Every structure is written in structure tokens, then in C-alpha cells.
Recover the amino acids of this structure.
């Protein structure tokens, strides 16, 4: 039987003692030279006796045993023999994508070549390339589509960690499962939920009248904004830093508008709302996730039977989540009372379905919770004189399996929803300026609303999936492991809190960044376990990357606009 590994940290708790052998996470080895020169804390893996058959097996695909349990955070491994050490050394020579997915270097190269070939050839068959237009216009349309793909690729490489990072970090999903699931849901969300109408001046950042009669300059500015935002996203993704794609594109357009249109070309109030989200988003995410995780520890961990308590809490959480989502985000009717009734019906249906699944898959453990231990008294923590903020020890043995199994299901469900919603929302950061640039190039009006064709929506979805496949593992590693140690309960608390905050804050019109909210939520879970549970160096690097996103994007946009205007003056 293969050996499983247990991650030990200075603040080790009982629930941290389970890390399934099928969970392997690649953490990039790149340092952050422009942020910090301090040496990172090292976490060591110790050999752990094989766990009983876990309820997580139903969430996993059967995959061959990898040659190397990727973990750059650790400086040493307990190997059983020299053969494993040799395998580890060989795997270090593989490209990052091959290491992350446990595939050969030739397979990773073939996938990359196939994606590149598709990116270069598919635009030739798109209607948006321009039918019946001059060859020069078609060539510029082709280049515009490639600019949009580049931005979408970087959105996939960086922002998709919002949905899947915590699931991979807690072990609820393997990296390969997470990428495959996110690829389907991100593309579906982009195609089905992506906005079909957008304004030329994205996000209300630029004043349209300033650029009336300056179509060439505006076209160059839109392309430059895509290239500038994509460039900074690629740099951040290379170092595994989660940054806001919305802030990237906003910063790029602000730089272009300020330099080429003057101070009157920028809606400064809108920019102030964006920058305020740097503080509002992580604070709200941290506060809600702190409360959610404390509720789990207080009402599930301290219960006489934590497994039964978790199984009972899951349908309630699903009911609340599905009802809120159905009513606030996707109302089925325009009449509020009818929409609320329909949302309650959807929530009830979701709760019943989840309850049946949990009872079916974990019923044998729920009926005989003490089957794997001889002393049932050690299964649960004492429940006397416990306050909401008390430090409660987690369950052990079979009880821990049940709790992790239940919250593993919940985390996968929340990750799937976030992935679908992300594809529908953030694809506009790439296809919005892309559609506007195509409209200008092909004779559209600069101040009018632009209908986004279906093939452009699909193009943006393909770009997100391509970026996720090739580079998504980098930021997933940061969200899932480098901020704080995650388990299914912690991961669910962070994800549920982030989704709730983003959903309701958006409905209230508050400036919220999904990336910042999730990072704050992961930090909040860490703070609930103690201040030492959050890695300050990683948080500092992330915050610095947030602060420089808008000025760096603006600087790139100004440089790229100058270059493009020079080139277009010779072409047009």
C-alpha cells in the first residue's frame, strides 16, 4: 500500500492530520525577487500511516501514481528508498505543466502546440473576422482577435484560481480534476452567461465624448489595454500572484485615457470605487469566512456526533446558498414575490438532493461512526463551557472522515458554481474591449452599445480554458497552499464566504473584487486558527502586487499605445 503524507505546521490541529495520498499539489519554485528577499518558511512532510478507505474516493478519478509529490514549500521528504529520490530528481527536470499534471514532457509540449495552433487558425473561420471587407481590415481584425485571446488566456491562467484553488489546496479535488472541471464550467459560463451587450468605454472608466472622431487612436488604445493587462497578468501568474483581472483592464484603460485624452477623459469617481475595493473586498471576505469557520468549529466539531452534525448542516447550507443565488443572481421571474417563491423551491430541491447524496455515499459511516476506533470517547471533543470563539479540538478517526467527506462535497459544489459564474462575468474583461475594437475597425459607432457575437463569446471562453490548462496551476498553488494550510472544512468556509460576499455586494452596488475577496476569505480562515497560521510573507507579496496593478497596467498601456499608433499610421 502506498504511503500517505501528513503536513505538519507549528500550529498543528487534529483536522490537519489527514492529507490523502491521492492529493499532490505543484507549487512553483519561482521566488518573488522584486517583492522580498527573505527566506521562506519551510514546512516538512512526514510519513503517515495509511488512512482507512476515505469517503473522498468518490470525488477522485483513478490516476496513476505520480513520480513526485510536488511541494516546493518543503525542503525535505521522507523517502522509502533511493529509487524514489531518483524519480524526484528526474521530475524536477520536467516543464512546470508536465510536473503539475504528472504527464510526460512530450505530452505537455504536444498540448501546448495544439493550443497554439488552434489559437492561430480558428480566427480564420470566425464570422467576426469580417465578411466582404478589404484584406487590410481582415488582417487587423485577425490581429485584434489574437489580442483578445491573449487577455483571455491570462485571465484563465490567473483568475480561475478563485474557483478551484481552495478545492485543490484542501484535497477535495486533484489538480487534474479541478482543471478539467473548471475548463468545462468556465467555457459554459462564458458562452451561456457572458454579457451580449457592452459599451465601448468599458466599466464606465472613460468618457466617450473625448474620443469622438478619433477612431484610430481609440482602436489603438483598446488593443493596448488588452495587451497591457495581459502582460501584467502574465507576470503575476509566472510568480503565482493572484491579482484582479478587472483592475488590470481598468488600470490599462485609465493610463491610455489619461495620457491621450487628458484628465477629463477619466471618470475619477469610478476609479476611486475600484481602488476602495482593495480594502473592502479582503476585509469583508475575511470577516465572513472567520464567522463561517467558527460556526463550523462551534456547532459541528463540538457536537456529540460531529459526523451527524455535518451531515445535517450540509442541506441547510445548500438551501441558503441556492436560494440566495437563485433570487439575487439568477432570478427566474421579474416579479419579486414569484421570484422568491421560485428561489425557495430551488433551494429546497438542492437541499434534498445533497442530503440524499450524502446519505447514500456516507451512510455506512453515519450508521456506524465508531467502526474504526476502539475508544469512541476520543472521537469527539468535549462540549462543556464552550464559547463561540473558543479553541475547539477537531474530531478524530471515522468522525473526521465523515466531516471531511461532507464538506468535501460542499466545497466541490461551491467551486463549480464559482467557476461557472466566473466564466460568465470575467470573460467580459477580454471580449468587451475586443468587441469594441472590432466594431470600430469594421465601421461601427464608438459611442453606441455593441452586440457581442456568439463566436466572440466562445473565443473568449476558449482563451480562458487554454490559459487555465497551461499556467493555471501556478496561482492555484498560492491560493490553495501558500497563504494558510487548508482542509475541506476550511476550504468550504473560505469559498462559501467569498461567493456570498461577491454575490450580495454586487447586488448592493459595492465595489468588490472576487480575487481580493477570496484571498481575504482564505486569510480569515487562517486567522480563525490563530495569527501564526497565516503566512505573512505571502500575504505581503500579494498585497504589493494588488497595489501596483493599476499603475503598472497604465504604464504598459501608454507604451503599447504609442507603438501601435506609429504602426497604424503606416498601415491605415
Amino acid at each position: 500500500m502506498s504511503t500517505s503524507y501528513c503536513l505538519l505546521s507549528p500550529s498543528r490541529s487534529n483536522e490537519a492530520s489527514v492529507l490523502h495520498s491521492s492529493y499532490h499539489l505543484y507549487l512553483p519554485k519561482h521566488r518573488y525577487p522584486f517583492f522580498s528577499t527573505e527566506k521562506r518558511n519551510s514546512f516538512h512532510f512526514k510519513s503517515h500511516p495509511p488512512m482507512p478507505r476515505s469517503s473522498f474516493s468518490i470525488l477522485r478519478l483513478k490516476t496513476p501514481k505520480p513520480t513526485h509529490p510536488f511541494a516546493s514549500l518543503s525542503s525535505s521528504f521522507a523517502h522509502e528508498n533511493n529509487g524514489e529520490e531518483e524519480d524526484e530528481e528526474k521530475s524536477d527536470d520536467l516543464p512546470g505543466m508536465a510536473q503539475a499534471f504528472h504527464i510526460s514532457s512530450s505530452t505537455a509540449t504536444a498540448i501546448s502546440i495544439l493550443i497554439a495552433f488552434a489559437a492561430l487558425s480558428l480566427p480564420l473561420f470566425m464570422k467576426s473576422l469580417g465578411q466582404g471587407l478589404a484584406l487590410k481590415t481582415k488582417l487587423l481584425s485577425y490581429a485584434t482577435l489574437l489580442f483578445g485571446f491573449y487577455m483571455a488566456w491570462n485571465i484563465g491562467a490567473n483568475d480561475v484560481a478563485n474557483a478551484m484553488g481552495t478545492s485543490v489546496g484542501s484535497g477535495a479535488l486533484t489538480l487534474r480534476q479541478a482543471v478539467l472541471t473548471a475548463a468545462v464550467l468556465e467555457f459554459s459560463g462564458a458562452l451561456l452567461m457572458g454579457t451580449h451587450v457592452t459599451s465601448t468605454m468599458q466599466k464606465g472608466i472613460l468618457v466617450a465624448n473625448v474620443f469622438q472622431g478619433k477612431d484610430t487612436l481609440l482602436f489603438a488604445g483598446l488593443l493596448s489595454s488588452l495587451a497591457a493587462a495581459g502582460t501584467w497578468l502574465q507576470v503575476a501568474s509566472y510568480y503565482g500572484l493572484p491579482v484582479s483581472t478587472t483592475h488590470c483592464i481598468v488600470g490599462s484603460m485609465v493610463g491610455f485615457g489619461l495620457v491621450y485624452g487628458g484628465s477629463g477623459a477619466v471618470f475619477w469617481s469610478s476609479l476611486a470605487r475600484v481602488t476602495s475595493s482593495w480594502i473592502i473586498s479582503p476585509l469583508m471576505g475575511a470577516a465572513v469566512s472567520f464567522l463561517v469557520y467558527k460556526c463550523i468549529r462551534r456547532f459541528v466539531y463540538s457536537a456529540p456526533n460531529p459526523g451527524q452534525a455535518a451531515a445535517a448542516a450540509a442541506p441547510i447550507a445548500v438551501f441558503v446558498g441556492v436560494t440566495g443565488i437563485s433570487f439575487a443572481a439568477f432570478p427566474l421571474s421579474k416579479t419579486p414575490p414569484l421570484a422568491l417563491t421560485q428561489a425557495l423551491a430551488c433551494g429546497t430541491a438542492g437541499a434534498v438532493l445533497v442530503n440524499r447524496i450524502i446519505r447514500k455515499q456516507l451512510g455506512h459511516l453515519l450508521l456506524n461512526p465508531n467502526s474504526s476506533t476502539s475508544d469512541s470517547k476520543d472521537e469527539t471533543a468535549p462540549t462543556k463551557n464552550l464559547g463561540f470563539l473558543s479553541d475547539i479540538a477537531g474530531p478524530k478517526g471515522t468522525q473526521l472522515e465523515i466531516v471531511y467527506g461532507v464538506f468535501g462535497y460542499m466545497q466541490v459544489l461551491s467551486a463549480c458554481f464559482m467557476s461557472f459564474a466566473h466564466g460568465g462575468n470575467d470573460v467580459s474583461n477580454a471580449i468587451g474591449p475586443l468587441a469594441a475594437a472590432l466594431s470600430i475597425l469594421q465601421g461601427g459607432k464608438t459611442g453606441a452599445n455593441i452586440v457581442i457575437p456568439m463566436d466572440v463569446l466562445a473565443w473568449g471562453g476558449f482563451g480562458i480554458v487554454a490559459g487555465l490548462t497551461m499556467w493555471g496551476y501556478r496561482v492555484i498553488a498560492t491560493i490553495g497552499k501558500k497563504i494558510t494550510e487548508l482542509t475541506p472544512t476550511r476550504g468550504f468556509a473560505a469559498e462559501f464566504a467569498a461567493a456570498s460576499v461577491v454575490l450580495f455586494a454586487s447586488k448592493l452596488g459595492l465595489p468588490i473584487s472576487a480575487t481580493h475577496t477570496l484571498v481575504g476569505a482564505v486569510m480569515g480562515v487562517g486567522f480563525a486558527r490563530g495569527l501564526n497560521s497565516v503566512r505573512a510573507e505571502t500575504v505581503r507579496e500579494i498585497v504589493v502586487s494588488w497595489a501596483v496593478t493599476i499603475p503598472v497596467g497604465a504604464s504598459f498601456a501608454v507604451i503599447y499605445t504609442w507603438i501601435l499608433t506609429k504602426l497604424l499610421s503606416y498601415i491605415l
Observations:
- The beta strands are 4-7, 45-48, 197-199, 449-451.
- Residues 536-571 form the longest helix (36 residues).
